[in-house]
């Protein structure tokens, strides 16, 4: 059977289109760091909407979302709950950060913190935490792309080749176009993944069960435990309400702390664009609905997928859909992976150069040289992620858990920067280090977690206490500097 | 006049998201944690989670309208 060739042809057409969009996008950008990292602060609503939505929903949502609904039932609803909750504070925070960025020239979250706390160590620690958190996330995206490719071509295109192909394209357009390449490809990839998800989510239950209602009627009769929260845990036992609830809270707090998302405030054309993006964000969030529906469709499906995450490709491959649909699904999966992976590669390289290298070593490199370094580092980061994707299998998910726990720890210094005048650099650095240590420790020794509460939350409590305690114990920051900084954040700039 | 309206909108939005945080986690979600009645073919608690997202769309929209002009 040569059906897999049709699949590959469809996917190659998608990759070629992504590459074309990505290369064209960078044409008008300036030869500066702000041009490469923040798109000369010129992103309009269309690009911001898709950059936000498509960067958030990754291969994890596209494969893991159905996988959770299939194997853990209503536990998956936690993903529904945290997105909008996590986005809400950004309605205020995003414009505040954008005003400061415009005035002081920040392109990253850590450089904003360094200026507020007047300490390059804050930038270095926050920058290192960010990069450590982002690299395993990149590896997971590359692995996701490789897995989709391998499955739909029945092994004719192995994981290493699929991952290399998809991320080769990503690295080319990130190299050439910087954040503009990320932005415009995300528009294309975002439309693609949303259309594919909704089409499959409405069509599959109709084809298999005669509709969504009849499908849930059958599940309610056979497996009712899957339809109420907190659903099941990874091994099929009832999940604990405490773990479910704290997963929602930690994810909501950590949500916009992901540097590749937060720093898009510096790329927006104006404040109104940031606000409109957030207003529209729930419409993107709803794209999880059809993905969960596909997962639930797998519950009573006659055959069993090789793993829970493979439930969506499994149904698509075994229910006799035409090869072109399988190809489109594969391209949708790659779009989900690449639209997150490109923002991560670009963000990690920008942070490593701007915050860790330029701030930490007090480098006096020119804009031009820094831009050149960021581009080169993006390639290094991409290759590093690729190698990690190939050598580590399951351990990658464990690494990502550490990463998520680490990113959440950025919340106290970020929120505190805007809300607490007395906060000091020593407090921010000590809080970050304490929070990460506690989170890491509880990941290694899960028995010490109180009531099954997420380790990130425990770390966050320790972090916040340390942040407040050390800030109060150290010399107050210069009042005028903080007052000016806050004044800038609260004063609307034209538009 | 305008300031007062913005003030109200911010409060309403703030309360909505606090209510949402309570309503989607335990113990707040417990009274709504049932399969039936189905809502548009979807189990009740699933519709409950979707409803909060759709509601957020409206809350964001009114917040935006009151702050923009």
Task: Give the key terms.
heterodimer; A: 495 residues; mainly alpha
Report on the architecture of this protein:
The complex is a heterodimer of chains A (495) and B (69). Chain A is 75% helix and 0% strand. Chain A is globular and about 70 Å long. Chain A is built from 22 helices and no strands. In chain A, helix 1 (3-25) packs parallel to helix 16 and helix 5 (77-87) packs antiparallel against helix 13 (271-285). With 495 residues, chain A is an all-alpha fold. Chain B starts with a helix and ends with a helix. Chain B is built from two helices and no strands. Chain B has one domain (2-67). With 69 residues, chain B is an all-alpha fold. Chain B has helices at residues 2-23, 44-68. The interface between A and B is large, with 41 and 33 residues.
In short:
The complex is a heterodimer of chains A (495) and B (69). Chain A has 22 helices and no strands. With 495 residues, chain A is mostly helical.
Describe the secondary-structure layout.
The complex is a heterodimer of chains A (495) and B (69).
Chain A lengths: L2 H23 L7 H6 L6 H12 L2 H14 L4 H11 L2 H15 L4 H9 L2 H33 L6 H51 L2 H11 L18 H14 L4 H4 L8 H15 L2 H10 L13 H8 L4 H37 L7 H25 L3 H14 L2 H9 L5 H20 L10 H19 L5 H12 L5
Chain B lengths: L1 H22 L20 H25 L1
Helix pairs in contact in B: 1-2
**Largest protein interface, residues of each chain:** A-B, 41 and 33 residues
What form of chain B results from the Cα inertia axes?
elongated
The biggest beta sheet of chain A reads: none
- Number of strand segments of chain A: 0
The backbone outline of chain A, from C-alpha atoms, is globular
The portion of residues forming beta strands of chain B comes to under 5%
């Amino acid at each position: 059977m040569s059906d897999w060739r049709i699949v590959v042809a469809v996917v190659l057409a998608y990759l070629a289109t992504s590459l074309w969009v990505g290369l064209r996008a960078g044409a008008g950008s300036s030869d500066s760091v702000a041009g490469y990292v923040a798109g000369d602060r010129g992103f309009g609503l269309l690009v911001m909407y898709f950059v936000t939505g498509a960067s958030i929903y990754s291969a994890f949502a596209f494969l893991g979302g159905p996988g959770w609904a299939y194997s853990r039932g209503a536990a998956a609803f936690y993903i529904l709950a945290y997105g909008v909750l996590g986005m809400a504070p950004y309605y205020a925070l995003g414009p505040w950060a954008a005003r400061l960025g415009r005035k002081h020239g920040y392109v990253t979250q850590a450089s904003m913190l360094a200026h507020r706390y007047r300490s390059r160590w804050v930038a270095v620690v926050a920058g290192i935490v960010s990069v450590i958190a982002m690299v395993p996330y990149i590896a997971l995206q590359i692995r996701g792309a490789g897995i989709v490719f391998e499955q739909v071509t029945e092994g004719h295109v192995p994981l290493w080749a699929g991952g290399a192909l998809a991320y080769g394209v990503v690295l080319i357009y990130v190299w050439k176009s910087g954040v503009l390449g990320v932005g415009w490809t995300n528009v294309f990839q975002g439309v693609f993944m949303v259309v594919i998800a909704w089409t499959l989510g409405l069509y599959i239950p109709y084809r298999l069960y005669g509709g969504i209602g009849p499908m849930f009627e059958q599940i309610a009769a056979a497996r009712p435990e899957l339809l109420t929260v907190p659903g099941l845990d990874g091994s099929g036992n009832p999940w604990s309400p405490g773990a479910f609830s704290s997963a929602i809270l930690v994810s909501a707090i950590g949500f916009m702390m992901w540097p590749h998302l937060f720093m898009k405030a510096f790329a927006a054309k104006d404040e109104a664009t940031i606000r409109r993006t957030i207003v529209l964000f729930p419409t993107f969030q709803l794209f999880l609905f059809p993905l969960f529906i596909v997962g639930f469709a797998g519950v009573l499906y006659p055959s069993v997928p090789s793993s829970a995450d493979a439930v969506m490709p499994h149904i698509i491959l075994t229910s006799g859909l035409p090869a072109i649909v399988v190809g489109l699904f594969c391209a949708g999966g790659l779009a989900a992976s690449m639209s997150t992976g490109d923002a991560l590669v670009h963000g990690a390289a920008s942070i490593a150069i701007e915050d860790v290298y330029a701030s930490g070593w007090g480098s006096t490199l020119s804009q031009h040289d820094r831009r050149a370094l960021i581009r080169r580092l993006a390639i290094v980061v991409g290759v590093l992620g690729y190698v990690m994707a190939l050598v580590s299998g399951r351990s990658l998910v464990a690494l990502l858990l550490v990463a998520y726990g680490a990113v959440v720890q950025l919340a106290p210094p970020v929120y505190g920067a805007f809300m607490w005048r007395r906060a000091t650099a020593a407090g921010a650095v000590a809080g970050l280090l304490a929070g990460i240590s506690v989170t890491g420790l509880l990941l290694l020794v899960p028995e010490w977690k109180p009531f099954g509460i997420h380790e990130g939350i425990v770390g966050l409590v320790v972090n916040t206490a340390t942040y407040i305690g050390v800030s109060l114990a150290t010399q107050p920051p210069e009042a005028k500097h903080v007052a000016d900084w806050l004044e800038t954040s609260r004063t609307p700039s034209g538009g | 006049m305008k300031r007062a309206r913005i003030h109200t909108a911010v409060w309403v939005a703030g309360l909505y998201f606090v209510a949402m945080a309570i309503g989607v986690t335990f113990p707040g979600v417990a009274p709504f944690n049932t399969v039936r009645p189905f809502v548009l073919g979807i189990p009740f608690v699933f519709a409950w989670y979707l409803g909060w997202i759709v509601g957020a769309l409206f809350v964001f929209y009114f917040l935006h309208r009151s702050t923009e002009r």
